[in-house]
Amino acid sequence: MQKRTSEKRATQNETILWQHSRDESYHHPVSPDIVVYPESAEEISSILTFANEHKIPVVPYGAGSSLEGHCIPVKGGISINFQEMNKVLEIRPDDFLVRVQPGVTRTQLNLALKKYGLFFPVDPGADATIGGMAATNASGTTSVKYGIMRDQVRNLQVVLADGQMIQTGGLAAKSSAGYHLTSMFVGSEGTLGVFTEITLKVYGIPESVLSARCTFPSIQTAVEAAIAVLGSGTGIARMELVDERSIVQVNHNSETAYTEAPTLFLEFQGNPASVTYEASLTKELLESFGGIEWVEERDSKARAKLWEARHNLAYAFKHGYPGKSMMFTDVCLPLSELSGAIVHARDKMDELGVPGAVLGHVGDGNFHAILMYDASNENERKKADSVNESIVTYALSKGGTCTGEHGVGIGKAKYLAKEHADTLPIMMSIKKQLDPKDILNPGKIIV
């Protein structure tokens, strides 16, 4: 990457402002007044000190891959782009830790770790920045085995609204000293402070990996089978569900010939003997729940091809519906309520005639609906909004959450009071204490 000269590290170029006005979500774009490219925590401290004195909004910007409008500067102001802060600062292989700047991407980090026989497991699909993943508490396909972003962050260097710089944790594997501030900042979406360094847990690269897919006669049987796998004690690393409509779109987009039925995609990691045993046990278990086709792959290229059906699904729908916008829902429920929620989502989409698909991280109760609609057609937009609201309302009624991994951002703020009626005032007081002038990503989470 060509290094920017100092005079180019702040710009009001219209094209660059436009690039920072949006993310991958369906929310209306808003341009910042200026985009800055800091190179250090000290520069970010100076930016925030100035912004706080003059009550100027500040919005962090990573890869722009978020799905709820987190990096849209709805009140203008300063957009902080972290592409110049993209260094892997320290790898501590004996401690299974790595310290990075926020602009480091997931792929970049794993390339740096590979020479040590290590990897970072959180996989949200997009090649997001580590700062953005921490800010939204991202998870993804591997969360069933490794947990979510909040489980991986050991320490954060954070610049607060007034320019003060703090460390939230340390290097130790555990601590009982005081409030767990690291967990509070992870998932705060840039509303409490700006991350300048992140210390993460990392893991040994597994000796053997096996991926598989299995089809089912219905969504209900697929979910029931997935829950049985979790209860069996096998070390499943990924377990993803896609519905029949998803497979139809994948076949159309990727020229594959998968059986068009609800499908579980699975992955096992470990030593060769354990992987073979666990896959065999899982195959037998899934077949007892009506699994009708089992295909497994060990070769890395074949495994990558198998997982394309899940990872590229959103793009398959974008290409299949040119000119339409995509609304991507995100709820998480207790596992016992998951099949009912998925059926409800599919029924609501069919009832209102909204094209799309249902998919999700069935291993931890998180699922998504892809809703395709014409943004210029008010009726189509209302129908998509109605499906989204119905999915969220159902999840909340069953003890679930309005967002399992995408974050609150703009789109889910209206549901926060319903989900956290008792604690929302406490969240608001924390925000007020740390950011009294409301300059940090205003209009997100707490509105």
Automatic annotation (TrEMBL):
Signal peptide: none annotated. It is an enzyme of class 1 (oxidoreductase). GO terms for biological process: lactate catabolic process. It comes from the Bacteria. Keywords: FAD, Flavoprotein, Oxidoreductase, Transit peptide. The keyword Oxidoreductase applies. Its EC number is 1.1.2.4. Residues 1-26 are annotated as: Disordered. Residues 28-205 form the FAD-binding PCMH-type domain. Its cofactor is FAD. The keyword Transit peptide applies. InterPro entries: FAD-bd_oxidored_4_C, FAD-bd_PCMH, FAD-bd_PCMH-like_sf, FAD-bd_PCMH_sub2, FAD-linked_Oxase-like_C, Oxid_FAD_bind_N, Vanillyl_alc_oxidase_C-sub2. Residues 1-11 have a biased composition (Basic and acidic residues). GO terms for molecular function: D-lactate dehydrogenase (cytochrome) activity; D-lactate dehydrogenase (NAD+) activity; FAD binding. Transmembrane segments: none annotated. Belongs to the FAD-binding oxidoreductase/transferase type 4 family. This is D-lactate dehydrogenase (cytochrome).
